Amino acid sequence: MTPFKHVYITQTASFMPGEPVNNQDMDQFIGSINRMSSRIKERILAENGIQFRHYALDAQGKSLHSVTSMGAKVVEALMENSDIPQFLAAATTGGDCAAPGLANLIQGELQLPPLETHSVSGICAASVGALSAAAHAVESSSADTALQSLASFHRACLKHRALKTAIQILILMHIFYVGCYRMALAA
Length: 187
Known about the structure:
By secondary structure, the chain is of the alpha/beta class. 36% of the residues lie in helices and 20% in strands. The chain has one domain: Thiolase/Chalcone synthase (Peroxisomal Thiolase, Chain A, domain 1, 3-Layer(aba) Sandwich). It is built from 7 helices and 7 strands; from the N terminus they run ββααβαβαβαβααβ. The two termini are 19 Å apart.
């Protein structure tokens, strides 16, 4: 890990879509895997300690937000009391489309002026990659301010039966919030 001497987290924000969903009601949003899934679910939930989660869809499966719109809501919150960042890094496990990257989509959604962007796609470590890129931009003095983001929404995966089982197990095993957060970094 690279030590940063001149980079500080100056602000954080978050956005969680929809109302909190408790463990008993989560099957209404993601469905059940099979008849053995309730035992697997109980075991995993007992181990991870999560009591509530947020979904970017309603109980009928209708999308409430896109990954881009969730990311844009938090960037707006961070920019309320500060200038437009010079660098925007964004990470996602599943974006709205394959290209352009999430950082560019958020930039377009908010009609931000030209700025350096960096998009990372992956699982849990993707957010660390975006944070590292933002921190390096500030540390190297290529940007005075940077925003780092994470936003994901796996609705499309839940439509496909083969992917549905794998995604549901992943949702249960990991601390998984369908939402986003942002960090503002400055020198």
